[in-house]
# Entry
Amino acid sequence: MNTEKLIKENKGTIIDVRTPEEFRGGNVANSINIPLHEIQQRLDELKNLKQPFILCCASGNRSGKATQILAQQGIECCNGGSWLDINYYQSQTV
# Structure
């Protein structure tokens, strides 16, 4: 799954798995904050969102873990890496 292409085509949902404090410090427009430690408890909520999910965090480590968890549940998703990269890709679509 090509993250940049998904964003340019406005497909899916961007989910930021950083802490709420980190998210408040800066985030991708229209992204949803679901911290990594809440992913499993919020699976029902996630299944009602537009897939595929583009997961991001500060470096790509936490979003990689979230991608593994969601993929095991049959949820279409990809690790977008840093939220700054996602933000850049999104800025190119305007």
Observations:
- The beta strands are 13-16, 32-33, 53-57, 77-82.
- The chain has one domain: 3-91.
- The chain has a mean pLDDT of 94.
- The two ends are 22 Å apart (CA to CA).
